[in-house]
Design the sequence.
């Protein structure tokens, strides 16, 4: 539905029209209107096909990268796309490179950190076991474990990894990072580079994957890598599913080579009903919910970039097509 959101009367030529493409396009449009300094012509479209039908040469597109990828080849005048997700894999899969793509960073750390530590604490406190024993009316009195003094390894030292690392310090964890470059990062005792993966994995109590999907991250956690982890280790993936070999992970869990795991990302979502992942008893599955793109945290990034775009200034969080993030 086409609408004109107004705050003040100024020259409309200074405010490029925007095509919003997302299931919650109306919510995003309302937040854009609330934060806009100037009137912006917005077309809020809840499907890719609606967006294609309403497209009239807009240069700015904001929203769901999967939906945008469906129609981007036909949006010939677009020169800036702002993703509403942290991940932009569907757009990177296209051959088109004649536009600027910007992502979302710096806002998902709190949500994802809460998810990570909910599962780590549940693991150490034996929450699920205690609930199961309660249902059977059994008094389960073995003690709990603790996070304090243990080692946390985080694959990915960007803004999300750094937030998790800082949170970990409050629990008395020692935090080691793993990244392509091995450059020092806030919150990490040390960071190891790509070629030191097996060394990084040795001796870790908890492993968190927070990596983007690129050729370099594909299947990093294969059978040989998972074998480097202690049998008591617990694994959480809140990054991208390509980093882990599912078959190798299932084998490790079923054969007590890992104590447990929690996965929030998968190659196919929802997971097929016949996937063996459903039947692994010490594996927790969540439906890509570790972080939600709430308009209140996403739209401010778009508005900052929109102002930079209209002022012909450099945009924030520009994606490197070659690197994949």
Sequence:
């Amino acid at each position: 539905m086409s609408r004109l959101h107004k705050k003040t009367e100024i020259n409309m030529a200074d405010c490029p029209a925007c095509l919003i493409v997302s299931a919650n396009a109306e919510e995003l449009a309302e937040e854009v209107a609330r934060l806009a300094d100037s009137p912006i012509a917005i077309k809020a479209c809840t499907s890719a096909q609606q967006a294609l039908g309403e497209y009239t040469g807009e240069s700015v597109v904001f929203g769901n990268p999967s939906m945008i990828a469906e129609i981007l080849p036909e949006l010939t005048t677009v020169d800036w796309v702002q993703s509403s997700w942290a991940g932009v894999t569907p757009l990177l899969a296209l051959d088109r490179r004649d536009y600027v793509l910007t992502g979302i960073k710096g806002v998902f750390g709190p949500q994802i950190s809460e998810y990570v530590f909910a599962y780590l604490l549940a693991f150490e406190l034996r929450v699920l076991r205690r609930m199961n024993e309660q249902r059977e009316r059994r008094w389960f009195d073995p003690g709990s474990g603790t996070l304090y003094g243990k080692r946390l390894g985080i694959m990915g030292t960007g803004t999300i990894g750094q937030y998790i690392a800082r949170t970990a310090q409050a629990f008395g964890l020692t935090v080691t990072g793993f990244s392509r470059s091995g450059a020092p990062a806030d919150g990490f005792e040390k960071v190891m580079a790509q070629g030191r993966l097996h060394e990084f994995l040795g001796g870790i109590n908890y492993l968190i994957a927070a990596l983007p999907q690129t050729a370099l991250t594909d299947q990093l956690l294969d059978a040989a890598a998972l074998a480097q982890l202690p049998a008591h280790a617990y694994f959480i993936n809140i990054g991208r599913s390509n980093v882990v070999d599912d078959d190798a992970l299932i084998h490790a869990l079923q054969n007590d080579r890992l104590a447990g795991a929690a996965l929030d990302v998968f190659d196919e979502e929802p997971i097929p009903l016949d996937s063996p992942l459903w039947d692994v008893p010490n594996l927790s599955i969540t439906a890509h919910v570790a972080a939600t793109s709430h308009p209140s945290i996403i739209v401010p990034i778009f508005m900052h970039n929109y102002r930079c775009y209209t002022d012909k200034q450099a945009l924030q969080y520009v994606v490197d097509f070659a690197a994949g993030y």
